[in-house]
Design a protein that fits this description.
With 190 residues, the chain is mainly α. The protein contains six helices and no strands. Helix 2 packs across helix 3, helix 2 packs across helix 4 and helix 2 runs antiparallel to helix 5.
Length: 190
């Protein structure tokens, strides 16, 4: 009986120590602030649709500026559809990268690094946008031949940019969720 009593006492002490361990875990608050970071775009983390939409809108702004400027220049010089489209696509990439570069450079990053970040952040996004945007314009009856002063030009452009936004937002969400795309740009803004 003495041994059983001693063993019971030992079990009770072990249980108390284990219970104290559980209490320590219940009161542990060291990681409670980490929930605030759940919306950030860390690889494997949760990426909000809002964040993806903002990144897409950023790219879309540069693309739209380039597209419209390319159409204006092509029309002003009397170019055909193909050279005008090539210029518009080139300018879409240029302005898409330029907007990103501006933000990164303002964070104090050197040009070479900023340029690499802009290429990594925007290339896929702009490429998808341009494929969708120009595909819609090319397939829309009469849109390729519409001039800047015609309603058809602006309706087709608005529709193509809207569709490009809708298609590219999930692409950006996927990229940001893997620490790529605008997730790279975001690191330079903190």
């Amino acid at each position: 009986m003495g041994h059983q009593s001693h063993q019971s006492h030992q079990d009770h002490q072990d249980h108390e120590g284990h219970q104290g361990h559980h209490e320590d875990h219940q009161h542990h608050t060291g990681h409670s602030g980490h929930d605030a970071h759940s919306g950030h775009h860390t690889p494997g983390g949760t990426v909000s649709w809002s964040m993806a939409a903002q990144a897409t809108l950023h790219c879309l702004t540069g693309c739209a500026i380039g597209e419209i400027l390319g159409m204006i220049v092509g029309t002003a010089f009397g170019w055909g559809n193909m050279p005008t489209m090539v210029l518009a696509i080139a300018l879409a990439f240029f302005f898409g990268y330029a907007l990103t570069l501006r933000g990164i450079l303002s964070a104090g990053v050197d040009f070479k690094t900023a340029f690499k970040v802009a290429l990594a952040a925007d290339t896929l996004s702009i490429l998808v946008m341009e494929i969708i945007d120009n595909g819609v314009i090319a397939l829309w009856p009469g849109a390729m031949d519409a001039h800047l002063d015609e309603v058809l030009f602006w309706i087709a452009l608005a529709a193509s940019l809207t569709l490009a936004f809708v298609v590219t937002t999930p692409v950006n969400k996927w990229m940001i969720g893997r620490g790529k795309g605008h997730a790279v740009v975001h690191r330079y803004h903190h």
